[in-house]
Amino acid sequence: MDRIIELRHELHSNPELSGGETETAQRIVRFFASLAPDSILKNLGGTGVAVVFSGTAPGPTVLLRAELDALPIQESNPVPYRSSLPGVAHKCGHDGHMAILAAVGQELASRRPASGRVILLFQPAEETGDGAAAIISDPHFAEIAPDYAFALHNLPGFPLGQIVTRTGSFSSASRGITIRLQGAPAHAAQPETGRSPAPALAGIIAKLPDLSAGVAPTKEVAFITIVGAKLGEQAFGTAPGEAEVWATLRSETDATMEAIVAYAETLANESAASFNLDCTIEYSDIFYATKNSARANEIIRSSTNGSILELERPFRWSEDFGRFTTIAEGALFGIGAGLNMAELHNSDYDFPDAMIAPAARVFQRIIGNCLE
User: Fold this and answer.
1) Domain ranges of the chain
2) How sure is the predictor about 1, in pLDDT bands with cuts at 50, 70 and 90?
3) Which of 60, 65, 119, 275 is the most buried (most CB within 10 A)?
4) How far apart are CA 194 and CA 341, in angstroms?
5) For 173-286, CATH number?
6) What pTM did the predictor assign?
7) In this predicted model, what pLDDT tens digit does every residue of 6-53 receive, in sequence order?
């Protein structure tokens, strides 16, 4: 385990942002090369790495996924292995997730599965929602297409090692929306000669978060968060002709997300038309709800020795692992990082090394339960 912790600290010290995880991927490749897996696929969906361990007999393919990317956050922890890159740090614990799969790989190197095969996938660009889709659309993904797919996420605020799961939606769907309004500028002394987007912008900001009119089911958590807006510049002689509003749409299910998208687009277009403005809409950071199948969730239950916490509702945060659960029997589960921990994406969060061994054991039992 010392070697695994050393790897985790090395990854933590050298974080890379989504889509640029080149050196992180190379570190993963170097680590696994010494374990002599059956094959290593590189550059999947960009910088992704898939490490393959095959059994001697045919059987299902089990994919375990970890993430390569870090966040644009300045680290405040004074640890010896703190981030060496200003403004970038592993504040979601992806360094720990990679270390967990490395520990699983060490075990597989000494004891291959009797049948089937295990794919240890290190995925880029999870934080932006682009990585899983890029992996699946890569032509080489067909070589490792899984029958089962599992991933975990560390959870501050839960007892260390506590397994947290749920059948159905485990984490929410979300996406960013950018609404652009285009009118015509005018002299501030003659605003009537232009087409100001200000009234439409104000109306959209006021009305967009209101989902009370039957947009979402009453029992489902769904909401829109305004995250920013822009109207003109600090130029007191000019009435601006363009504006933008940015918001995050969030829901527990993909079906409700479709309804929220339709609501937002209708509101934006009608508001723009009321003031003779052009309206364009763009989406980014698109995450589907991660839905755990009943079969995959039962495999998780049977792979733990301790108690399991079954969530009543999905987490509000999003995870792009939902792409994998649309093509394979799969599930995302949580594992407690400790009760008195900084929250994810906080500047002082640090993945606890004590979580690596128990998490790796759960993954090893999952492999055994899928391939037995």
Assistant:
1) 2-171+290-371, 173-286
2) confident
3) 65
4) 54
5) 3.30.70.360
6) 0.91
7) 999 999 999 999 999 999 999 999 999 999 999 999 999 999 999 999
